[in-house]
Amino acid sequence: MQDRRGLSPSSAATLGACTALLARPLLARALLVKLGRDVRALNAGDYRPLLSGYANGAVLRFNEGEHRWTGEHRGKAAIERFLRDFVGAGLKGEIRELWVAGSPWRLTLVARFDAHATGPNGEELYRNRTVLVVRTRWGRIVHHEDFYEDTVRIGAFEARLRELGVRPDT
Fold first, then answer.
1. 77: which DSSP letter?
2. What is the pLDDT of residue 26?
3. Distance (Å, whole) CA 129 – CA 146
4. What's the CA dihedral at 43, 29, 95, 99 to 10 degrees?
5. Is residue 134 within 8 Å of 111, Cβ to Cβ?
6. Which residues pair with 135 in a beta bridge?
7. Residue 122 — left, alpha, or beta (φ > 0 → left; ψ -120 to 50 → alpha)?
8. 79, 61 in Cβ contact below 8 A?
9. Which of 121, 130, 109, 112 is nearest to 164 (CA)?
10. Among 90, 103, 148, 153, which residue has the least CB neighbours within 10 Å?
């Protein structure tokens, strides 16, 4: 028995399996290209490309502490304030690795993101390694949580920003 393309059920299954195996790395590569472009814009001070990837009701969770980014940021407006503070603090970052799981309409992304900031005199104010866990629905980020190598560094960075007069966006 053949389908309308002349494929037997076993050939169609094999073709489907091969397509799925090839599609996963292509999807991961496409996401890495898109996120890389968004992070380069963020590093240049433009958070809008990254923000456009969040759903209206998205949640961004950041580690608790005595710093401007603490807690849960619910909704695009709150996430925009978070990203403005990220840019305003002079933070820059780079995606080092990306892992993708799930179906295209419901993905989980895990990324290693290294962040740093330099002061006005060129001194290093901050450096940390982060793992970001991101869940998407139909191509939009619905949940994003960051996990840091060293959470104490964030508080020290906040103190240094205040010394320099860099206030959070409220």
1. H
2. 82
3. 10
4. 150
5. yes
6. 108, 143
7. left
8. no
9. 121
10. 103
Buried b (16+ CB within 10 A) or exposed e, 107-116: bebebebebe
25-163 CATH, one of 3.40.50.150, 3.30.420.10, 3.10.450.50, 3.40.50.720: 3.10.450.50
Q: Is the Cβ–Cβ distance between 124 and 118 less than 8 Å?
A: yes
Task: Look up residue 4 and give its DSSP letter.
Answer: T
User: Side chain identity at 142, as an amino acid letter?
Assistant: V
Residue 34 reports pLDDT greater than 90: yes
Query: How much is the pLDDT for 22?
Result: 61
d(CA 115, CA 126): 8
Mean pLDDT, residues 52-63 taken together = 96
Alpha helices in the chain (DSSP H): 9-43, 48-51, 76-88, 152-163
The answer on pLDDT for 62 being more than 90 is: yes
pLDDT band for 162, please (50, 70, 90 cuts): very high
pTM, whole model, 2 decimals? 0.85
Q: Do 78 and 65 contact (CB within 8 A), yes or no?
A: no
Terminal-to-terminal C-alpha distance of the chain: 66
